[in-house]
Amino acid sequence: MNKDKKYINPIFPDISVEDFDELGKHKFSKEYKRNKRQMLREYHRRKRAASRSTYAKIAVAACLLIVSVPIVVQAATNGVFFQRIWGNLTRQNVEQHEEVLLDEQEIPYTYTFPKREYVGVDAERARKLVGGHVLSDPIERQIGDTKLTILSRVCDESAAVVEFKLEREGGVNAFEYSQLDNEFRGALFSDKPTFWFEFVAGSENIIVDLERSTDDVVYCYDYMALEPDAYDKEKKGLLFEVTEYPCTRKEMFEADEKAFEAYQKNTIVDRILVPFQEPVAATKFVNADGGAVSLSPLALDIDMQKGLGLSEEEIYDYENVYYAAIHYKDQTTFVVREHEQKGRHSCEEKVDNTCCVSSNEQGHAVMAFNRLVDPDEIESITVNDTTYSRK
After folding, report:
1. Which partner for 160 in 54, 134, 224, 388 could form a disulfide, CB atoms 3.0-4.6 Å apart?
2. Could you read off the pLDDT of 34-81 as tens digits, one per residue?
3. If residue 44 lies in a helix (H) or strand (E), which one and from where to where?
């Protein structure tokens, strides 16, 4: 469902077992608390590093891979694909701007959206950088009245991009999305469908292609910052989870303890291995203190522990990277991300040229780009005030 463009939902509940224990005199069962947290997982997925929470999972009902055609290795050769994922075919540059938005409680607040710049993609160069790592064989799954088709995917060791579409007669109702959602944290699941899905070991940002999509078919690009070892090297894929409820998500959220537990008993969770090609290789750059960043055409992976002057607590929050820039050998600079940080950094405008940014369990900040980067053309990388040179 496409919302009014000035309504986005920025609220992500941060619930732990301790929080539940303090909610009142009623003592919730451990099973109820565990299952309720399972329902709230998608709200946490973009803030995992900040919350530092581990979510219990309900029993997996089945593990199966459903494909429409036999899996074969097939590199994407269509330049349009590269333009949609990393180019400016369906996205336009965005200048920094302020919007008065409404939160969940209909309370207005002002948010500053960063500047974003999209560039065209040279198809031949894109094929050289990542073409052999793109898998384009469709995976189909019927979930209730909605058909999910995973179209193409590619990854490195730290990030992934998946192109998929949702189809539903009478209109796709799975997501809340708009242009501002695309600029903020991407599409969110609405409370209308009877299902939910996610890639398990990653923080996701789902961008809806507003030009390509219709009411009945919605095209999406899922950009992910992966947790360590998310890519299964033996099975060559990423784990994908589909949860199907016996009611709508709204009914699940609003259920009391007794009703929720009854719904939960009839909830089915499937874990599906989605195959990927071999990850795109990354190039390491180091600083004077032994810190390192890894750069692939898809993403920048920053080890926050050495050389940035951050505390043990600060290394798990990617917002403590207030400036990240890639310097080319031709003397041009690609500013990946920049924002104000009190007492540390000031800037004229807020910039964000990522499609997903998150922190992982190892104290790394992962930034998936909104364009392709050729590591062979890079001279150095700057993170905050620290310079990294090719190892």
Report:
1. 224
2. 455 445 444 334 333 232 222 223 333 333 444 444 333 344 446 788
3. helix 41-44
